[in-house]
Queue: 2 jobs
Job 1
Amino acid sequence: MGSAVYAMQMSTSVQPKTHKRRASRRSNAAPTIADVARAAQCSPMTVSRVINGEGNVREETRIQVLDAIEKLNYSPNRAARSLAGGEQLRIGLLFDNPSASYLSEFLRGALEEASKIDAHLEVQTCETPEAALPLMRKLSEGGISGFILPPPLCDDQDVLDLAKELGACAIAVGPGKAMGTQGSVMIDDFEAAVDMTAHIIGLGHTRIGFIIGKPEQLASERRLAGYYAAMKQAGLEIDEELVVQGRFTYRSGLAAAEKLLSLPERPTAIFASNDDMAAAVIATAHRNHLDVPTDITVCGFDDTAMASTIWPELTTVRQPIREMTAWAVAAIARISRSRRTDDKGTVEKSIIPYTLIRRDSDAAPSLARSPRTEP
Amino acid sequence: MGSAVYAMQMSTSVQPKTHKRRASRRSNAAPTIADVARAAQCSPMTVSRVINGEGNVREETRIQVLDAIEKLNYSPNRAARSLAGGEQLRIGLLFDNPSASYLSEFLRGALEEASKIDAHLEVQTCETPEAALPLMRKLSEGGISGFILPPPLCDDQDVLDLAKELGACAIAVGPGKAMGTQGSVMIDDFEAAVDMTAHIIGLGHTRIGFIIGKPEQLASERRLAGYYAAMKQAGLEIDEELVVQGRFTYRSGLAAAEKLLSLPERPTAIFASNDDMAAAVIATAHRNHLDVPTDITVCGFDDTAMASTIWPELTTVRQPIREMTAWAVAAIARISRSRRTDDKGTVEKSIIPYTLIRRDSDAAPSLARSPRTEP
DNA sequence: GCCCCTTATGGTAGCGCTACCATTATCTTA
DNA sequence: TAAGATAATGGTAGCGCTACCATAAGGGGC
């Protein structure tokens, strides 16, 4: 550009009346993007591009930058990033009175991921889905990029509608009845229930009791359907007496177990839709002088801490809640980033694999105790 | 490069030498400190002073500023704050395999407070205190202002020494044996145990069993001491058979309960040092055909989710874990702020009040000692 | 050859706040 | 009363990064 301009600038840069030069305010000498740029012999801008995975960078340059980053052990300053980026990623975590073991996993997953991508987590408990609405409004005042909704909130249409109205995206953790989330992470509850039921059948059981979860939650239906499907596939007749309603709580499991165990021809195995209810089944069995698993097999679902706390430890289906929440946080980040550029309503979905965890609460039916039944 | 090009540009835009004026990058029109300053008719600097509670601001001015903040519904931009402040508050949360119910409360407390003061939480699990050391080193690479240490980490001198070496402060959540933390939050475990024991005595029990917690943790000692003190104060003889060792786990509670319940003259009440062990006592009692609380009173400690999950619900001591962790986060913030200015090694301590929660697992001893058998 | 278009890169101006100094009014104290 | 100390406030330059534009360097298509 014009040399004249430069000359002028130079003359003013003698600082006739401005403040005296100050020392840099940087206290800890953490490398900045400029240091990397110098090392990689390019501009800070190019470094920024590499870091953010943008296109339009020559492969050669990219590698140089990555090398420099490695060498300097550089990590970008989160504060500067979100300040310059103009947008702060705030994520609302809402939950409706879940079990402690669920919650701790849920929070850990969110926390780990949020820490990585520098998102702010706003945690809110609400007793009912209706109570969630004002909380969401309040959170939204400060600007919220998205909400993470575990069941039963993701089964509630009003909650989702409000999220949309507030311009936030909603990610369901677990299956949801309500339509219109911008994404969801879940395991295949149906297949998992099929597998577990098949496992129990494989042990030789034929009278298998089932305790259904909370009726409002879609996961309950799916798990039940899995049980039915596996029974049918094994050619076993389904005795409706053996299928009882629960509500995912320990208390409800107690009642359901009482019902199943007092049946004239009681089941030799019980598959509960979650671990809390399975624990309740074991407690009830013990109170009725039944040994687990000798007299009765008990299996759970979720693999919460409960499953490995109680004795005997539960055979259950592991649902990787931590990974699921982490994924949800990442999804919100992706979505709100993409929103800034293109406005297409992408929907992110992920089915995370589950695992069948075999522990000590299952066994083949004992010949002596078990009422013999038709093959 | 050419002046030609520039000349052209000059003709198209009024700006002679600089780039053309850009639109502000601010997307959401959240009020900034400058807006507040304008409204309060002072400089942004003064507003900053008011916000940060610094001195040297006239009361009159302060009020004007606060009014303006209120009117504009201003809230400071966290990113800008930590960028300009030069220091990022990073807090390491370490825990050693705690129960899920403890953890969820622990995390919630930390999360809520951290969100308020814009601290970054780094969560790490470690199986043993020794395993914590490398994790701490690693966390420290990115710069850590402080660590929050629940038991048993706060009982480990090596952990504390390392924290000091890394230039981070350490806050114990719960009593710790190791010396040298920069602060601690806890309840008065001794007094709480005294109260609970006195409560049980007040119901009419005289043979009261006690299950000790993990021996390495100071809380265990304190609770035991409380039990002894209350027994002594009531003039009750302490039968050493009635005091058995546990390790805070459900499993250890099972063994301890078995021991206590198979005593020739078994206790009419058992006070376990935490809820998990108390739950194990109840399970064992049930397996031995004893009703709770009719045949035996069982009390716990901590009031974790377990306490109100099981049946009957536990009478226990509520330890407000959430508040405690929140306090710890705030303490780290205070300390590292004060460190920047004066370097005095302030130690922050807080004793948070506990509550005795009476639920359904306690009752007066039944008059006939053992014979009551159920059908 | 010219023009345009794409791709790779650089320069600069903020993002909103606070540290640091400068400045002015308000007292003290020699 | 002048000189200094103190209190209250203002101005400015970053903090480290990214958005936005500008520029330069390579292709085709006419």
Job 2
Amino acid sequence: MPLHKNVISSTSLAIGALSKKTKVNIETIRYYERIGMMPHPPRSRAGHRTYAQVHLKRLTFIKRCRELGFTLNEIRALLGLVDGNDYSCQEVRTLTLQHKAAIQTKIKDLQRLETTLTQISDKCTGGNIPECPIIDALYAE
Amino acid sequence: MPLHKNVISSTSLAIGALSKKTKVNIETIRYYERIGMMPHPPRSRAGHRTYAQVHLKRLTFIKRCRELGFTLNEIRALLGLVDGNDYSCQEVRTLTLQHKAAIQTKIKDLQRLETTLTQISDKCTGGNIPECPIIDALYAE
DNA sequence: CTTGTACCTGTAGTAACTACAGGTATTACA
DNA sequence: TGTAATACCTGTAGTTACTACAGGTACAAG
């Protein structure tokens, strides 16, 4: 897994330290390794995973992408480009814009839901009666 | 499972017919039964599920709620009120408004994501060069 | 009588983790 | 040096809301 830029080798980290630095759960880090998002790191004599700067950067990348709502598959594609060391800005941009379009669709869907919920709940007087226009609206044939 | 209003007993439906009427997948209907969202219907001599108007209404209710983004647990709460035959309009309204608030939060989150993605991808010239500001932004420490 | 369709049960797979159970290794302190 | 706490290990199961089989039965039409 080649790094993008500015690779500085430094002291190694145990999984707990990496977890604290990146704010990624320990179990999640191991999970990423299992599914191939993170490489198998070298092990210490005791069998503990020892992480270097490379891993810290990669995990940070994954974390940021997740926060931006990319799925693991989308991130895999992004990392694939980077790993191949043969990506063009154009390809990355395309993936990013596709993702943005998906988000915009989701926003519109949710806004439509919100409108419907507002309409439905506006019908409700909020009284203590058992005849509820919300339930009626949902239950009717 | 008491009905809300206008219960008209009529001909019974096989699972395929119910599925077609409600546009809910057959496997999903059986799944709802397994997890207790739908009651166990009576069986025909051949062991086939036979559904009545009650089931059609209940499933329609579930479907509508799902389309409105309610989780199965939220729907369970709603159905619990209806099943208890002792709900007040107020309770239903509260659940609905809570759900609406959650949707509004989600919309805001997604809008923030969209803004960030726009900012990031605006930095990109879209050229064919391997130095990509998007990747840089995500990869940097 | 055979073919097709609709139904049946039960299990496994999806996404992205999280939460154990049960075991080892290292470190801190008395 | 002994022991107790902590950090790590592996492997499996649970979460949400389904979907997709595999392998089997029942019934109707030609």
